[in-house]
Sequence to fold (407 residues):
Amino acid sequence: MLEVNGRRYALPKQPTVVVCVDGCEPDYLAQAVAGGQMPWMKRTLAQGTALVAECVVPSFTNPNNLSIVTGVPPSVHGICGNYLLDVETGTEVMMNDPKWLRAPTLLAALANAGKSCAVVTAKDKLRLLLGKGMNGICFSSEKADQVTQAANGIADVLGLVQRPVPDVYSAELSEFVFAAGVALMRTRRPDVMYLSTTDYIQHKHAPGTPGANAFYAMMDRYLAALDEMGCVIALTADHGMNAKTKMDGNPDVIYLQDRLDGWLGAGRSRVILPITDPYVVHHGALGSFATVYLGEEDLSRAMACIASLPGIERVLSREEAARAYELPADRIGDLVVVSERFTVIGTAASRHDLSALEVPLRSHGGVSEQRVPLILNRRIASAQAEAESGRRWRNFDAFDLALNRAQ
Fold:
């Protein structure tokens, strides 16, 4: 047994694959299964374990992927967004550097225990965080042509996968993850593998649409291949996805920095959008979660003004948000703002270029995107019973179920 961040894990007896499908609102699976595009998933839902879990808030990529591989919320591992204000320097930075991670990963612990581990992620932004301290294979689809044995634990990924490097804004970026996972399992048979996709399709296509169903049909074929090789598979998501539009199809945006400047005066507050990452074409850096830095004298007024806005679900102080959402208090603003299901938060209108949005905006970040699938290709009757009795399953229970109950 291993103990990591206060949780105990059995060593795998069978090859174990944990898959994080970025942006996988459960309805994507429901629609694709009902439409006949996912025969493997239909069988697995009937014969395996099918739970609905909750992701961590903010419902963004980095916090949830790191929760899944550490087994704990952001209050422990420290990754509370894709992006934050470094209060020591006063600069806004990406949370891609492993220095921000405060807890060890289970993957590193498994590798240290002598188990072979592999990580394949779609975007390179996650690679260093997921691979911190892990002696094994770790690479991204985005930079699959730049791998080296020394840096990534593998050479010539393109030769292994027999695919070119995909465009970062494409379904093929995620398909490369699955193709690489199947190729690694056939040739290297790692003891544990973690696969993490991108939500490009989910940002552009609603559940049940042809684009979405084609993506999930592709995914189903690769999962079936891993299943045929005897893998224990646990599938979850980092967050869900919702339309964020007004009735005319335009984005329903609250430009919070503009509002605060109007109420308090320019320069008295600073709005940070933790959804921000290097890939904003498909969401315009607009999500349903924001943090605000401002002076003590402006706190009460700002809270009241923000709470009065249509489309705002919740405004919390730093301490309240840290408790409610299990966040590291020293890495969030003086206020945390969460918008309702169909609304997103921006900074100033002049700072968001929405010209690249080809379809009505779909995004995430709030409580409304917390529901995610948690599915295993093994029947775990006790897990189903616990769900029926009211247990709150989390996406970061995936490794616990896969290693401790599904082997």
Remarks:
- Residues 2-241+365-405 form a domain with the Alkaline Phosphatase, subunit A fold (CATH 3.40.720.10).
